[in-house]
Amino acid sequence: MAPSFDCAASILLCAEDNSSVLGFDDDVDGEEDGRGFGWVSGVKSPHFYGDFLVDFPVLSDERLGSLVERETEHMPREDYAERLRSGALDLAIRRDAIDWIWKVHAHYSFGPLTAYLAVNYLDRFLSGYELPQGKAWMTQLLSVACLSLAAKMEETEVPLSLDLQVGDAKYVFEAKTIQRMELLVLSTLKWRMQAVTPFSYLDFFLHKFNGGSAPSKILASRSVELILSMTRGTDLLVFRPSEVAAAIALSALRETQVVEVEKALSCCIHVVQEGVLRCFEVIQDLMAVRSRPRKIAIPSVSSLPQSPIGVLDAACLSYNSDDTTAGSHATCGGDSPASKRRKLSSSSIS
């Protein structure tokens, strides 16, 4: 059984009364405004990620092998996806947290890796700890902490934790409250914050599957967009980051040219080809479902905030789960991801 939040809270050694989780009073959780937001499919991405991979040097085969050996240290527990699908873990908690993360990510025009890291931290945390039932404020507090940590790892300009609480936030937390939650997340993740992600491998596989040639910016942007569009669903949680990256690269290439999948994978000695093939098939199924005409009414795009990552179809994002709603997130003025410098590290290893 996963440890409880009350048990983990003791590591923070807070002076406040610990009668509630992390020492917060249950009846003073924050200010709730009752507003929500959703996602909508069919919205074109306002961002272009073609320059994102420029900051990642192409990996050598040896470096690739080193990353593959360590990538499981930066994944959720093996049973996490199944527990979400079976109802053992509340899928709505994850969905609501990611929805909020995406909206704030778009508001500040954070880079793709910041968004992915925030969701990675969230999944790894939720796979090890169960949030108490009926405490929606704690879900948002966890979301703020994960995004704040990801921004500190990845962005050169990081908003204050108080300023992160935008996007129709239902609750508003003090900086010290967020900091304590950050410490709990850090401890739970064993301070392994420079996670190995699909982005760590993406440029390698795009080069490899493209005959050794550098991928076009359009291909790179499409690959990044595909990775981000899959984060809200649970289908890819069972696959390693290297398998996801290889499958995404193949999927993006296949949209514009003929690709012999098994032949392309034969030159990759460090990844499990069977895992890549299974992941590739899942992605193809998700993309096929997404491309089907929808029979439900879709609100006007002009009346809803746009998504930072383009088409976010609910069927694509939650293919094997009961999470079938879709919507969009707000974008905000500011520099595009390509125009902001990132603190990118080729090692991506803690």
TrEMBL record:
Keyword line: Cell cycle, Cell division, Cyclin
Lineage, top ranks: Eukaryota, Viridiplantae, Streptophyta, Embryophyta, Tracheophyta
Short name of one Pfam family: Cyclin_C
Listed InterPro entries: Cyclin, Cyclin-like_dom, Cyclin-like_sf, Cyclin_C-dom, Cyclin_N, Cyclins_cyclin-box
Organism: Musa balbisiana (Banana)
PANTHER family cross-referenced by the UniProt entry: CYCLINS
Stretches assigned to the Cyclin C-terminal domain: 196-307
Superkingdom assignment: Eukaryota
Region (Disordered): 326-350
Protein name: Uncharacterized protein
Keyword Cell division included in the entry's annotation: yes
Family: Belongs to the cyclin family. Cyclin D subfamily.
PROSITE patterns: CYCLINS
GO BP of this protein: cell division
Keyword Methyltransferase set for record: no
Chain ranges of the Cyclin-like domain: 99-187
